[in-house]
Specification:
With 349 residues, the protein is α/β, with parallel strands linked by helices. The chain has 14 helices and 14 strands.
Length: 349
């Protein structure tokens, strides 16, 4: 939350507890939160102990999970379908888990996830370019053309917010870009949006294989809200790829769409597997924390304020988008995709 967000909550009569140095990574000092009227706590433990609602960016860490209390509201990215242990903990603790990534409008859009997807897509194209460098194991080519030398060939799996932004950035670098999208209506939208800047094709298993094996960079950006990412790039397909080509899997937070992907870090973003450069940085938006903080606060704050003003249950009743965000409550799963992932019952809120 930004200091401006603190002021909004205070104007509605709420008290805001801020973990000391929480904003340091994105250039927001404690003094800015204090000036806005927030109460600084020396550790995250102090926040978890007192707060009725905890607002985060990423899923709770194991140390935080142990401090959760029954009926406490946790509003953050949860990605539960890819995390059995966290799901079990949230159910045991009987907390109210409201997931940013499943807050969904009537038109199917994901308003809180969208700006983070755009950031991730932008960074994925940049990481694809870095992965091609020989120092990172790549084949040693540029994304864009040089006089007389062809540009890189980039395939993007999934044409949602992340895939669309990845396409814009990669094509802006001069790469030859193809987006594979499953939904026919979205294919048409993307073709209208990009015109002749890149190619958009209807996705199929055969087409995925045909494009991936010819690509220099593959960006995985597929998403099923709340569910594990479908594995579209199999181990056998990775073996067929060009040596020194690059896979950037944006879907790694949801289990990944590539069978050979594993989570990586900003300090060690790449690893080689079958001679293919893999990049599975979790929480990509944290690479540009100030941009991400501003974007996430802008989209999440109205929902958080609604929860604080009305209580989570009334807020969910009044706002269908927020209702879809309620993922676990009172020891039960209330999101069908998460329930399916673990073969458990889904209970209506």
């Amino acid at each position: 939350m930004t200091p401006e967000g603190v002021k909004v909550f205070l104007s509605h009569g709420h008290q805001i507890l801020i973990e000391q140095k929480a904003g340091e990574g994105c250039g927001i000092p404690d003094s800015a939160y204090r000036k806005a009227g927030g109460t600084l706590k020396g550790s995250s433990a102090g926040v978890w102990e007192e707060a009725d609602m905890v607002i985060k960016v990423k899923e709770p860490l194991p140390a935080e999970s142990s401090r959760m209390r029954e009926k406490q509201i946790v509003f953050t990215f949860l990605h539960l379908a890819a995390n059995r242990q966290l799901t079990r903990t949230l159910l045991q603790k009987k907390v109210i888990g409201i997931a940013y990534e499943t807050v969904q409008a009537d038109n199917g859009s994901l308003p809180i996830l969208k700006p983070m997807s755009e950031v991730a897509g932008h960074l994925a194209a940049q990481l694809g370019a870095r992965g091609l460098e020989v120092i990172n194991g790549g084949m040693g080519i540029l994304m864009g053309p040089v006089h007389g030398v062809a540009p890189a060939r980039v395939t993007i799996l999934g044409g949602g917010s992340a895939g669309c932004r990845a396409g814009e950035v990669a094509s802006g670098m001069g790469a030859v870009v193809t987006i594979l999208e499953l939904k026919k209506e979205r294919v048409k939208q993307l073709r209208d949006h990009f015109a002749h800047r890149l190619t958009v094709k209807q996705s199929s298993p055969e087409r995925i294989e045909g494009e991936v094996v010819q690509s220099d960079v593959v960006i995985g950006s597929v998403l099923n809200p709340g569910a594990r990412a479908p594995q579209l790039i199999t181990r056998d397909l990775v073996k067929k790829m060009k040596k020194g080509s690059v896979i950037v899997d944006i879907a790694v937070d949801q289990g990944g769409c590539c069978e050979t992907i594993r989570p990586t870090t900003q300090s060690e973003p790449f690893y080689l597997y079958y001679g293919i450069v893999h990049c599975g940085i979790t929480n990509l938006p944290s690479m540009v924390p100030l941009t991400s903080t501003r974007a996430l606060t802008r989209e999440s704050l109205p929902y958080a304020l609604e929860i604080a003003d009305k209580g989570y249950l009334q807020a969910a009743r009044d706002n269908p988008a927020l209702m879809k965000g309620v993922t676990v409550m009172n020891g039960k799963i209330t999101n069908q995709a998460v329930a399916n992932a673990f073969q458990l019952l889904c209970h209506p809120v």
